[in-house]
Amino acid sequence: MSGFVHRFVKSMTMRERAYFRRFSKMYGQEDGKNYLLLFDKFLEQEQYDADSLKENFKNHSILKNWSSEINYLQGQILKSLTNYHLDSSKGMKLQKSILFVELLIERGFQKQGLKVLNKAKKIANQVEDFSTILKLIQLEEEILFKVGITGFTKQLSALQKERKAITHKIENLNQLRLLREQIRELQFSDMENLSKEDHHYYFQNDLIKEKNNAFSVKAMGHWLYIKSMQSYLLKDVKESQKTNLKTIQLMEANELIFKKSKLLIGISNYLYCSAKIGDEKGFEKMLEKLKCMESDPKLDKLHISFIRLARTLDLYHVTNDLKGTKKLIEEAVPLLKNERDRMGETQRNYLSILTLRGCFVLKEFEKGIEVLNDLMKSGIMDYLLIPSRFFLLMIYFELGWKEMISSEVMSAAKIFNRHKIQNDLTKTFLRFFKSGLKTPHRMNYHFEKLISKLEELKSGSNFYNEFLFFDYSEWAKQKEIENFSTKK
User: Fold this and answer.
1) d(Cα 159, Cα 144) in Å, to the nearest integer?
2) Residue 315: CB partners within 8 Å, gap ≥ 6?
3) How many domains does the chain have?
4) Cα–Cα 20 to 30 A to 260, which of 126, 197, 237, 450?
């Protein structure tokens, strides 16, 4: 528990910490002294250390009731943050309005409560906060039952219809949201093993045939994402890019409904598609929009930096901009080291593998190994195990480290089998390096076999993402030419 509270305290902004101290003075009184001492000690620790923390209080009463003191601190922080953010968003304001309505009803001021309720319902409809609308409908019914005004039955009937319509929208939103998450996972799965039923569910689902099947603006956001992902999975990246642009336009036209953090994701997806098809003009225009968002204090600047670096590295890889790649690598490597703990696992993994690819293309192999070692220490996600091991083998090959190749071939085979990701591509690669070590004098023959098999795999749909990320067959062709020239 204390470890969690430490992370919680460290996550607070400077303004939130300052408000917490003011809040403590107003409500803490004498019994608040202990939790304030704990709060200060948590702030002092960069990395959580339970023994060191307790050592600071070895002669203090805090140690006698350690768990309860930690819990009390957590409770006070939550209270202060709730109070601090009560007017920070439409959602928080709506929750405050519900409290006001309940208080007014409880004290017999139904008429005044109804005024507050109507204003809140108007805002809830604007932001499509459907769960809050249902709560407000319930409170409005309660007021009608207590007051018993003229037209009572008619108004109750209207509220029942409203509840039914809102419930229908919620069900529709949840269906599209579920389908969105399911189709999103397909990009990391084996598309060839989909059954006819699966394929129909994901690509011919009646829910996404027509725009009218999205019953709200929020639902339309999910609908567009699904259409974009469908196009991407069917290798139509340009169409996916167009749909992502529609998503961005939808979000910008409905600022009350979509948070800026959601807009960031839309921009990131558009930049990704633009990079993959080499659309430099579209990319630069959207990148300017991203840069303008850096000044927004409510947005995570680290997340924005990740998007800018990751997507631009993709663009430079497609356009073969080595100078630009080198400049970005010089920025990405220290960012990965200094912000490793603050970055999410997916962000850290993906930016690391892009940086590794950049190092490989630039032939900065030692730096590439350093990036990969750091990634291995923090843990590699399953879907990046194949490219990370391939790059390591290719780096060893480039450097002529035969013993390291031999060791890595065995390690990679075990890892691929353990994670159940051994496939035709991994077998082809490992077989090439094994053969090359056994009979190096037949390297041209081994390259011919490797290139032939890679071209075959590249032309299919099984390994589309792998070859979209890095064209292994082009690397093999280049090495075959170099090997032939050396022999000659």
Assistant:
1) 11
2) 271, 274, 275, 278, 280, 283, 321
3) 3
4) 237
The rounded Cα 245 to chain-centroid distance in angstroms is: 19
Q: Which of 84, 115, 141 is the last residue of a domain?
A: 84
Q: Is the pTM of this model over 0.85?
A: no
At 181, the amino acid letter reads E
pLDDT band at 82 (very low <50, low <70, confident <90, very high): confident
How far is Cα 7 from Cα 341, in angstroms, rounded to an integer?
Answer: 11
What pLDDT shows up at residue 455?
94
374 with 447, same domain: the answer is no
The Cα 61–Cα 117 span in angstroms is: 48
Q: Which of 363, 365, 367 is nearest to 336 (CA)?
A: 367
Gap between the Cα atoms of 316 and 322, Å rounded: 7
Which residues, other chains included, contact 285 with Cβ-Cβ below 8 Å and sequence gap of 6+? none
Digit-coded pLDDT (tens) for 12-70:
888 889 989 888 887 655 445 788 888 888 888 888 888 888 888 887 888 888 888 88
Distance CA 325, CA 318 (A): 11
Residue listed under structure tokens 């450097």 = 399
- Report the percent of the chain where pLDDT is more than 90: 62
**Helix pair 237-253, 217-233: axis angle to 10 deg:** 170
Residue 79 located in a structural domain: yes
The structure tokens listed for 431 are 């077989």
Burial of 131 (0-12, 13-18, 19+ CB in 10 A): exposed
Using one digit for the tens of pLDDT, what is the confidence trace for 144-159? 888 765 667 888 899 9
Concatenated DSSP letters of 188-204? GS-GGG--HHHHHHHHS
Show the tokens assigned to 174. 């949840």
302 lies in which domain range?
280-380
- Residues 101, 397: Cα–Cα separation, whole Å: 71
- What is the radius of gyration, based on Cα positions, of the chain? 29
232 phi/psi in degrees, rounded to 5: -65, -45
**Boundary-marking domain end, from 380, 413, 446:** 380
Same domain, 360 and 430: no
